[in-house]
Amino acid sequence: MRIAVDAMGGDHAPQEIVKGAVSAASELKVEIALVGDPESLEKELHKYNLQGLSISIVPAPQVIEMGEHPAAAVRKKPNSSIMVATELVKKGEAQAVVSAGNTGAAMAAAKLRLRSISGIERPAIATVLPAEKEKCLLLDVGANVDCKPKHLLHFALMGSIYVEKIWGIRKPKVGLLNIGEEETKGNELSLVTYDLLKNSGLNFIGNVEGRDITKGEVDVVVCDGFVGNVVLKFGEGLSSSIFHLLKAEIKKSFFAPIGTMLLAPAFRALKKKMDYSEYGGAPLLGVNGVSIISHGSSKEKAIKNAIRVAKEVVEGQVVDNISQGVVMLGVEEN
Questions:
Q1: Beta strands 124-130; 281-285: pairing state
Q2: Are the beta carbons of 89 and 291 closer than 8 angstroms?
Q3: Model's pTM, two decimal places?
Q4: Domain range enclosing 260
């Protein structure tokens, strides 16, 4: 399996991107195509022992910066690292693309080069959130600010297939994010979507509230990208604040450090579960190819795990299964 990595995208490119790619090539036994400036990438690769590893460099003279407008950038920079990496997937020269660069540009590149799966109008970014019982998949988290009911139905289908194929959960429980559990709650989007999901054939358990996401009683939660992104960013900020507040309170007490030492293993396990880098990257579901979008601040561990996610999605044949799911459920007619 060959995975194309946008080596110039992200806050810590190319150093951490290359480091993560080398770790992935070693641990996951995959071939890596680093896409970007050859001189910079060769300089980084010289720091490592690459014996036995399959890592190549694919030249890309342009870079889309984090602050650039996505649509304009992909048009002005057709030879950017993210565009070239995505093109490798389109041509069949790589089975997946991973990028920690401009999220909008990564989505635009996938839509432009890979195109959407027939029947899926809006690809969605799916991200993993930690929960009391295992984890939960939330989508969309930013690809689509404005959605129609049929788009949320598509998200539910894609999320359900992903969880079944990647997590091994048969008939995943699907919930619609809403302001109340009652069927009559919510705005017009929620009310119409509820009826579509209820009659979809998916394992739809009804409306779920924000507090239900982390309980682990639902496997897939669907919402529009505006709401999903707010939920995601709030969760990131809350978890970070909790750890900072906890450290501050520990420092105030003379005896607290003793208790902290005893609880250290539990704290480490909790921190690992809350760490986004453990989950790698978020798949862009709904395009004709595997595209994994990583956090802009991703370092070695996050990049390695993003490549792991890419490998799992390819092996799970998620793209083909979504295509088949569209036909089986007839969602293209909604």
A1: antiparallel
A2: yes
A3: 0.88
A4: 126-278
Query: Beta strand 290-294 with 281-285: parallel, antiparallel or unpaired?
Result: antiparallel
Tens of pLDDT, residues 1-41: 999 999 999 999 899 999 999 999 999 999 999 999 999 99
Both 131 and 235 in one domain: the answer is yes
In the chain, alpha helices (H) = 15-27, 38-45, 70-76, 81-90, 103-109, 149-162, 188-198, 225-252, 256-274, 300-315, 318-329
Burial code of 130-157, b = ≥16 C-beta within 10 A, e = fewer?
bbeeebbbbbbbbbbeebbbbbbbbbbb
323 found inside a domain? no
Q: What is the DSSP string of 152-210?
A: HHHHHHHHHHHIIIII--SS--EEEE-S-SSTT-S-HHHHHHHHHHHTSSS-EEEEE-G
Q: Are 6 and 69 in a shared domain? A: yes
Residues 108 and 70 sit within 8 Å (Cβ to Cβ): yes
Q: 106 by DSSP, 3-state: which?
A: helix
Count, residues in the chain:
334
Q: How far is CA 125 from CA 136, 142, 269, 291, in A?
A: 14, 7, 27, 10
CB count, 10 Å around CB of 180?
A: 12
Residue pair 125/142 in contact (Cβ under 8 Å)? The answer is: yes
**What is the model's pLDDT at position 59?**
97
* CATH of residue 255: 3.40.718.10
